[in-house]
Amino acid sequence: MEIQRKTIAKAIVVVFVFNLAVMGAGAWFAYQEAPPIPDEVVGPDGDVVVSGDAIREGKTVFQRDGLMNHGSILGNGAYYGADYTADALDSKVRFMRNYYAQERYGETYDQLDSAEQAAVADVVKSDLDDSYEGGAIRYTAAEVYAHEQVRQEYVERYHEGDHERGVPANMIDSEEEARAFADFAMWTAWFSHTDRPGGTHSYTNDWPYQPGAGNDATAASMTWSVVAMVLLVAGAGLGIWLYKSVELPEPSAEDIAVPEPGDVSVFPSQRAALRFIPVAAGLFLAQVLLGGLLAHFYIERAGFFGVESVFGVPILQLLPFAIAKTWHIDLGILWIAATWLGAGLFLPPLLTGYEPPKQSTYINVLLGAIVVVVVGGLSGIWLGANGYIDGSLWWILGNEGLEYLEVGKLWQFGILAGFLIWAGLAVRGLKPLLDKEPPYGLAHMILYAGGSIALLFTAGFLFTPETNIAVTEFWRWWVVHMWVEGAFEFFIVAIVGLTLVSMNLLSRRSAEKAVMLQALLVMGTGIIGVSHHYWWVGMPDMWVPIGSVFSTLELIPLVFILYEALGQYRAMSGESFPYRLPFMFIVASGVWNFVGAGVLGFFINLPLINYYEHGTYLTVGHAHAAMFGAFGFLALGMVTYMLQLSIDADRWDGSWLRAAFWCWNVGLVLMVFVSVLPVGFLQLETAFTGSYAAARSVAFYDQPLIQTLFWARLPGDTLIILGTIIYAADLVRKRFVLRQSADDPSVEDMAVAEGILGDD
Prior knowledge:
By secondary structure, the protein is mostly helical. It has a domain at about 35-215: Cytochrome Bc1 Complex, Chain D, domain 2, CATH 1.10.760. About 65% of the residues lie in helices and about 5% in strands. Strands 2-1-6 form a three-stranded mixed β-sheet. Strand 3 and strand 4 (about 75) form a beta hairpin. The two termini are about 20 Å apart. InterPro entries: Cyt_c_oxase-like_su1_dom, Cyt_c_oxase-like_su1_sf, Cyt_C_Oxase_1, NorB_cytochrome_c-like. GO terms for molecular function: cytochrome-c oxidase activity; heme binding.
C-alpha cells in the first residue's frame, strides 16, 4: 500500500486539530465540573469548621513545602509518604467510627463486638454516602470531630516531624499552616466520597478504594477494562498490519556509501553542540545517585546506611526525601532535554554542509543560559522549600511544588525561552533544506515538533497555587503527558529520521514518509491518551471511556517502532557497518519502550487495575522502563553517534560505552523485575483485599518481605550508577581526542551533504 507524503501530512494536521479540539473542550469541562471549593464548611449547629480561603491556603502550603514529592494527592505525586486524599479519607472513617462507638457504647470502635462494629460502620457509611447540591458543606457532629482529629495528626506529623514516616521536623513551618494543609486534604477526601449532583458516584469516580466510606470501583471501570482488552488485540494486530502493509523503505547497508566517521568534517557549531553532552552527563550522574538515595530511604527512613546514628549527620533534615525526589525528577528531564537539544544543533551541518555566521557563539550562549536555568531552578527548589523565599516569590523564584513542574515559574519561562532560542538556531542551521523542501519536509517537521513542545509547555502557566486542584491537575498533565507522549516523541522520531539520512541509510524523502507516519500514530493516540490521568482527580466521568480507548491505542505506534528498530538493527548488523553501537541503543530503546510504555503501560491503564494500583510501585516500574525506552537510550545512542563522528576513526574506542550500555540494561532488568514490580503487585493485592490507604501505609512498607525486596533493588541500582559513572568518565576521556573543527567549512567538506541537498 503506497501512501504519499502529502497525504500523511494532511492527516497529521487533521489529527492535531482534532486533538486540540477534544482537549480544548475538555478544558472547558474541567472548569465547569471541577469539585467546588465552598465558601465554608459548617457543623450541625451552624458553626464554621473550615472556610474556602483555608482550603486554598492549604493547597498553597502543599505546593510550597514540596509535599507532592513526599506523598501524593489524588494518587499523583511521590509514593514514599501517604496519599493525602486516601489518608484523610481513611482517618475520617476511623475517627467517625470511634465517635459513634463512644457516643453509643462508651467504648472505642476496636473494643466493640462484631455486631456493634457493623452497626457503627453502617452509620458512618450512611453519613458519607451523600451528594452535594451547592452552598455550604454541612458536616455531621462525627465529621466535625474527625476533621479536628486529622488537623491534630497533621500538625504532629508534618510540623513537628515524624522520622518513622521520613518526615523532617518543620516540613511545614507552623501549626497554623499544617492545619490548613489538613483542611485541604480533608476537602479532597470530601469530594472523593460525595456524589456529584444528579450522579451515582463521587467527583473522583469513587476513588480511592475505601469500603468504609462506600467507595468501590464503578461499573464503568469494569466495562471499559473489557473494551480495552478487546482493543488491545485489535490494536496489536493493526500495528503489525500497518508495518507489513505500508510501503516504507527499509534502511540497508548494501550498495550504499555509508560515510565513515573520519570522512565527515566537524564544524565549529558541532563542537559547540558537543558541549551539551558533558553537561547532560553530569546531570545524569547526579540523577542516578539521588535515585540510589531515594531507594534507600524506603528502608532507612531517617538515615543512609547508619550515617546518622554513627556520625550524627541528620540526613533527613539536610536532604529530605521531598527535595531529593524533586531534584531526581528534574535532573532526569534536564539531562535528556539537554542531550536532544545538543543533537538537534549537531545534525544540521551534517545535512547541509552549511555553517551560519556565529552559530557556534550562539550555541555557547544557549548552553550558558541553560546552565543558569538549571542552577537557578535547582537552587530555588531548596530555598523555596526551606522557607528562604517569602511571599508570592516562592512559586516564581523557588519551587512551584507540582511533580514534574517543580521549578519556579521564572525558571519554567527560562526553559520555554531556551526551546524558542533553540528553534531559532535550528532554523539558521537548516536553512538550505527549509528553502528547498515542501512544508512537510524533514527539516520543517523538526521545527513543528519544537513548536509543539513550546505550545504544550505553556499549559503550565495557566494556573496558580490557588487554582482548584482538579483544574491544576488537568493542565499539569497537558505538560507532563502530552508534552512527552505527543510533541517530544514527535521531536525525537524526527531527529532519528535526520540521523538515518545523515548516515545515507535513507533518502530524505523516504525518511520524511517514515517519520510522518510514526508521528501520525504517536500523536493520534498519545495526546488524547492523556485522559487516563483524569479518571480519579475530580474530572467528569466521560474521560473513563475516552481514556480507555486512546490509552490502549497507544500500543500501535510502540509495536510499529519496535519492529522498525529491530529491522534497522538487522540491516546494520554487518561487521563493515561503522555505527553498530548507536544502533544497539536504538534497539534497546524500542524494547524498553515496548515493555515500559506498551506492556506495563497498558496493564496499569486498564481502568479496573488503575483504580487499585494508581500511585503504587507498578507505576514506578512503568515510569522507569518507559523513560529509558522512549527517551534515555535514544538520547545516549545519539551521543554515541555524535562522538563517533567527532573522533578520528583510528582513535575511536567504543568499549567503555558498550560496557555502560550493558550495565544500564542489566541494571534496569534487575531493578524493574526483581524489586519494583514485585513490590507493586503486593501493593495491588493489599489494595484489593484491604484499602488503598493500607497499600500506601508505612505498615505495608515495613513488612519483612517488602523490605527484602527493597534491598533486592540494590544490585540493579548499583549497575545503573556504575554504567553512568563509566559513561561520564568516558566522555572526559574522549574530550582529549576530539578532532579539530574545519576552519573554513563549506559543502565540499561534508561527505553526506551533496546527496541530501540533491535529493528532491
